[in-house]
Amino acid sequence: MMIAVIGLGFVGLTTALGLATQTGRLVYAYDSNANLRAKLKSGEVPFHEPGLKDKLHELLGSGLIICDTLAEALEHTSIIFYCVGTPSRPDGAADLDALTGAIRQSLPLLRKDSYCTLVIKSTVPPMTTTDVLAPLLKNSGHMVGESVGLAHNPEFLREGRAWQDFIHPDRIVIGACDAYSMRQLEQLYEPFGAPVLAVSPGTAEFTKMASNALLATMISFSNELAALAEGSPEIDISQAFRLLHADGRWQGGGMASYVYPGCGFGGYCLPKDTLSLYRYSQKIGRESTLLGGVLAVNVRTKRAFAERVVAAAGPKSKVAVLGLAFKPGSDDVRETPAADIITHLLELGVTDIVAYDPLAISRFRDVYGFPIRYAHSLEEALEGRDLAALVTAWPEFTARQLLFERVQVIDGRYCLGKREFVLPTQLRRS
Ligand SMILES: NC(=O)c1ccc[n+]([C@@H]2O[C@H](COP(=O)([O-])OP(=O)(O)OC[C@H]3O[C@@H](n4cnc5c(N)ncnc54)[C@H](O)[C@@H]3O)[C@@H](O)[C@H]2O)c1
Ligand SMILES: O=c1ccn([C@@H]2O[C@H](COP(=O)(O)OP(=O)(O)O[C@H]3O[C@H](CO)[C@@H](O)[C@H](O)[C@H]3O)[C@@H](O)[C@H]2O)c(=O)[nH]1
């Protein structure tokens, strides 16, 4: 049984390659962006994601067919994965237009000789499948459970580790509207060897949003607490959080990395999904003050970091901004804290800014167009600067700390010069 994947960004491309690899089935893949299709056809992955390029080369034309039209992608397939973007609308609620548009375009093209299952991987607010998508199908003459299947199958991969996360998931969540889709997906995912958990579509949607909101909450909690400690030189913030991690309950699995302060969370998912869940809470008349606070702390954290930079060096200073990607190991600059921090610096009168990032410079320059300069290396970025503002914790910065000796540094990620814990013997001597 062949598969179609619609939308070939981080999630769609990984899903297409991952399903082709694990299930051995032929995957027909389509994206409405002709430029992206051309790049993928020539074997180019237009974003940094370890492992994907090799897999694309291996599977292009054999396990994976990049289609030029949606009709071609759907001609032979009976399971269709939708991985299109669900960005924020101007009011912060999720914009479902790309998803509903892709589904609408698909319906007249579905195979008539077979039951087709529509699987939603895009992140959507709770109750979207039941309240928006099932009625959309019904109004187009497709009854869920009779002629088509419908399921929400959230994706939990992280950027920078998309391939590994997809191939080795902790759990596979399936919120199917009909029994046939559930069975089809259960079979399809069997080779992954991960628990396949059947829930209602609303539970699947809610779980995905809850997961991102929880991560965002841990980060904002850490930033709020760090702000409380900031004024007391005796408190070593990095040590304090590393001591929290020493509680065995945080160890294993990487959760502790979210319980650590920084200069704000970013990326495509945490900001928009937390905001979308917050808007959902308002829509249903149960406003979540906690989620509102998580978002407000994130805004305040980025602003406060820019103010610390200006307070330390003054508006006329020459500043290096180190790190533009939203996290180390990625070249994604969507909602990156660096963009808001540079905006604040410019507003506060700092105009002489040189920025550097090991991976994300060209993407950042194209997306934001700030009136700043870019350096090709860390050395060049620091040359003649009064102050370096470290915004993304790239390993290059921690590995090359000697370069920072001649410049004042504001370490927005608490990653430099980690002081070890004082041993009782040292305490006695001092
Ligand atoms: N990026 C992540 O780490 C991640 C992880 C889990 C879930 N998600 C969710 O998955 C979804 C996709 O995220 P992404 O990061 O891959 O987005 P992306 O922006 O990288 O890719 C989305 C792709 O969909 C294409 N598209 C839009 N409308 C289309 C249409 N009508 N037909 C065909 N293609 C269309 C776009 O051209 C784009 O290439 C979002 O809902 C996101 O919240 C993202
Ligand atoms: O090493 C790290 C990793 C993360 N962060 C912070 O955490 C934020 C988010 O990082 P991460 O969770 O890795 O981002 P994403 O790749 O966007 O992944 C999140 O969003 C995805 C999209 O929904 C989900 O699938 C993932 O489970 C969820 O972790 C970053 O902005 C940073 O603030 C760090 O400071 N250091």
TrEMBL record:
<feature type="binding site">
    <location>
        <position position="123"/>
    </location>
    <ligand>
        <name>NAD(+)</name>
    </ligand>
</feature>
<dbReference type="InterPro" id="IPR001732">
    <property type="entry name" value="UDP-Glc/GDP-Man_DH_N"/>
</dbReference>
<dbReference type="GO" id="GO:0006065">
    <property type="term" value="P:UDP-glucuronate biosynthetic process"/>
</dbReference>
<protein>
    <recommendedName>
        <fullName>UDP-glucose 6-dehydrogenase</fullName>
        <ecNumber>1.1.1.22</ecNumber>
    </recommendedName>
</protein>
<dbReference type="Pfam" id="PF03720">
    <property type="entry name" value="UDPG_MGDP_dh_C"/>
</dbReference>
<dbReference type="GO" id="GO:0000271">
    <property type="term" value="P:polysaccharide biosynthetic process"/>
</dbReference>
<feature type="domain" description="UDP-glucose/GDP-mannose dehydrogenase C-terminal">
    <location>
        <begin position="320"/>
        <end position="418"/>
    </location>
</feature>
<comment type="similarity">
    <text>Belongs to the UDP-glucose/GDP-mannose dehydrogenase family.</text>
</comment>
<dbReference type="Pfam" id="PF03721">
    <property type="entry name" value="UDPG_MGDP_dh_N"/>
</dbReference>
<dbReference type="InterPro" id="IPR014027">
    <property type="entry name" value="UDP-Glc/GDP-Man_DH_C"/>
</dbReference>
<dbReference type="InterPro" id="IPR036220">
    <property type="entry name" value="UDP-Glc/GDP-Man_DH_C_sf"/>
</dbReference>
<dbReference type="Pfam" id="PF00984">
    <property type="entry name" value="UDPG_MGDP_dh"/>
</dbReference>
<comment type="pathway">
    <text>Nucleotide-sugar biosynthesis; UDP-alpha-D-glucuronate biosynthesis; UDP-alpha-D-glucuronate from UDP-alpha-D-glucose: step 1/1.</text>
</comment>
<feature type="active site" description="Nucleophile">
    <location>
        <position position="269"/>
    </location>
</feature>
<feature type="binding site">
    <location>
        <begin position="258"/>
        <end position="262"/>
    </location>
    <ligand>
        <name>substrate</name>
    </ligand>
</feature>
<dbReference type="InterPro" id="IPR014026">
    <property type="entry name" value="UDP-Glc/GDP-Man_DH_dimer"/>
</dbReference>
<feature type="binding site">
    <location>
        <position position="272"/>
    </location>
    <ligand>
        <name>NAD(+)</name>
    </ligand>
</feature>
<feature type="binding site">
    <location>
        <begin position="156"/>
        <end position="159"/>
    </location>
    <ligand>
        <name>substrate</name>
    </ligand>
</feature>
<feature type="binding site">
    <location>
        <position position="159"/>
    </location>
    <ligand>
        <name>NAD(+)</name>
    </ligand>
</feature>
<dbReference type="InterPro" id="IPR017476">
    <property type="entry name" value="UDP-Glc/GDP-Man"/>
</dbReference>
<dbReference type="GO" id="GO:0003979">
    <property type="term" value="F:UDP-glucose 6-dehydrogenase activity"/>
</dbReference>
<feature type="binding site">
    <location>
        <position position="208"/>
    </location>
    <ligand>
        <name>substrate</name>
    </ligand>
</feature>
<keyword id="KW-0520">NAD</keyword>
<dbReference type="InterPro" id="IPR036291">
    <property type="entry name" value="NAD(P)-bd_dom_sf"/>
</dbReference>
<dbReference type="GO" id="GO:0051287">
    <property type="term" value="F:NAD binding"/>
</dbReference>
<feature type="binding site">
    <location>
        <position position="266"/>
    </location>
    <ligand>
        <name>substrate</name>
    </ligand>
</feature>
<feature type="binding site">
    <location>
        <position position="86"/>
    </location>
    <ligand>
        <name>NAD(+)</name>
    </ligand>
</feature>
<feature type="binding site">
    <location>
        <position position="31"/>
    </location>
    <ligand>
        <name>NAD(+)</name>
    </ligand>
</feature>
<feature type="binding site">
    <location>
        <position position="334"/>
    </location>
    <ligand>
        <name>NAD(+)</name>
    </ligand>
</feature>
<dbReference type="InterPro" id="IPR028357">
    <property type="entry name" value="UDPglc_DH_bac"/>
</dbReference>
<keyword id="KW-0560">Oxidoreductase</keyword>
<feature type="binding site">
    <location>
        <position position="327"/>
    </location>
    <ligand>
        <name>substrate</name>
    </ligand>
</feature>
<dbReference type="InterPro" id="IPR008927">
    <property type="entry name" value="6-PGluconate_DH-like_C_sf"/>
</dbReference>
